[in-house]
Write a structure and sequence with these properties.
alpha/beta, 459 residues, DUF3494 domain-containing protein, four-stranded mixed sheet, Ig-like_fold, 18-stranded parallel sheet, signal
Length: 459
């Protein structure tokens, strides 16, 4: 005959009736607990970053560099060198009323050839950077802080405005996997001291700058670059394999820029430290918080306070000092190295009171040493040796810290310590909740099935 059953979770007894009433909630709680536990595990995230201008090498001095030809119409002024390689044709730079270059014109010479090799390296470096923002298309009306911005076809509407807000050291890299199209009369505005030295446009195919546009940055196109009538460029127009076409433009290659940089592989922080050992009041204590990451992360307490007497070294992660008060303290320690995501770890410290000193002097009790000879009697000096303890009989156990509540028992445990979200404990409770729920569900179905079998026919 089926009998209702009950379950004991710690000191709480739950009857079948009350538990099955909330069966759905129990199973859901188990699922959520497991989900939260897994979600809180954060692995290191690798990224490729740069902390300075893209290295253009020998292409730095060029205001215009073409792959096949450079063709100009009208009075274009290029403040910088003009070159072409592997092609050799440069036209329209015979001086007023034609175009004018303040630098040197290089037609398929060694300088132009080397500049093209360096341009290829620069294009690859810019393309390798990890975007801070992806999926962009139309940049009109945006105000962008320093970063790496990527999209398929990047564009700026006719008459549109793009604002780059930063400082003289700020870097912007735009990655257009296909084309860059800048509309007529559009404008790129820089604020906060931002410099044209530090704006780069890596273009998968071709770039077009519209009529009378005010453009900022170095264009590094895999194929061609076209600047329409009256466009002003505070930067460079560099084409890797195809032509650069100009028409009454004013181009100024940036000078006096900060030293170039190269991309570096970085990793966001990930904690690797183990739970701290217990501390004792009055005893020097050391625990080291560790985390991987490139560059090396620094540490800070972002929640709670360390036990009194302990301090955290932000550079090394060493927590040291001499605790002055017993108790349990939980703090949140954050590791950061400039690479997202920033990670935090929850750390619990257990500090126990110092042991009481052993009793000495008059009144202490000890073991009586034998006197000289059998039957002799004399004065027994006190000793500081501990009195012998009684041994328990075989098969008997000492008293356990067990409490009883409504007929159920549970054993008190010391508070656990750990980092992050203490995954094993959370997963264990989540699994227990789900397992009890499943057994209970099976029990209910079994009860109903037996009830149908035992019911008289016709009822």
């Amino acid at each position: 005959m089926y009998r209702p059953f009950s379950y004991s979770l710690g000191a709480v007894v739950v009857s079948e009736k009350s538990f099955t009433k909330h069966l759905g909630q129990v199973l859901l709680a188990g699922c959520i607990a497991i989900g939260v536990s897994v979600a809180s595990e954060s692995a290191a995230v690798a990224a490729t970053t740069i902390d300075g201008p893209i290295d253009l090498g020998t292409a730095t001095t060029f205001g215009v560099l073409g792959g096949s030809t450079v063709t100009n119409t009208g009075l274009t002024v290029v403040n910088g060198d003009v070159g072409v390689s592997a092609g050799s044709s440069i036209t329209g730079f015979e001086g007023p009323p034609a175009g004018l270059a303040t630098g040197t014109i290089h037609r398929a010479d060694e300088v132009a050839s080397e500049a093209q090799l360096d341009l290829t390296t620069a294009i690859n470096a810019a393309a390798s950077l990890t975007p801070t923002t992806s999926g962009l298309a139309n940049l009109s009306g945006m105000s962008l802080t320093p970063g790496v911005y990527s999209g398929g076809e990047l564009s700026l509407n006719s008459g549109g405005l793009l604002t780059l807000a930063g400082t003289a050291e700020s870097i912007w890299v735009f990655q257009a996997s296909s084309t860059l199209t800048v509309g007529s009369g559009s404008q790129i505005q820089m604020t906060g001291g931002a410099s044209s030295c530090n704006v780069f446009w890596e273009v998968g195919s071709s770039a077009t700058i519209g009529t009378n546009a005010d453009f900022v940055g170095t264009v590094m196109a895999n194929t061609a670059v076209t600047a329409n009538t009256g466009a002003t460029i505070r930067g460079r127009l560099l084409a890797s394999t195809a032509a650069v076409t100009l028409d009454n433009n004013f181009i100024t290659a940036p000078t006096g820029c900060e030293p170039a940089s190269t991309p570096v592989e970085t990793d966001s922080p990930a904690f690797t430290s183990t739970p701290p050992a217990s501390a004792t009041v009055g005893t020097p204590y050391t625990h080291t918080v560790t985390a991987t990451g490139t560059p090396a992360p620094t540490y800070s307490v972002t929640g709670g306070e360390l036990p009194t007497g302990l301090e955290l070294d932000s550079a090394t992660g060493v927590i040291s000092g001499t605790p002055t008060a017993p108790g349990q303290t939980t703090v949140t320690i954050t590791a950061s190295n400039g690479v997202t995501p920033v990670v935090s770890s929850i750390v619990t410290f257990e500090t126990s009171a110092a042991d009481a000193p052993a009793a000495t002097g008059p009144g202490s009790r000890g073991i009586v040493p034998p006197t000289a000879g059998p039957g002799s009697r004399g004065i027994v000096p006190p000793t500081n040796e501990a009195a012998p303890t009684a041994e328990l009989p075989i098969n008997e156990t000492p008293f356990s810290a067990e409490r009883v509540t409504n007929g159920a028992t549970s054993i008190d445990e010391l508070a656990a310590t750990g980092t992050e979200t203490e995954m094993p404990a959370v997963l264990s409770w989540a699994a227990a909740l789900m397992l009890v729920g499943v057994f209970l569900l099976i029990g209910r179905r079994t009860k109903r099935a037996r009830g149908r079998v035992e019911s008289p026919a016709g009822r």
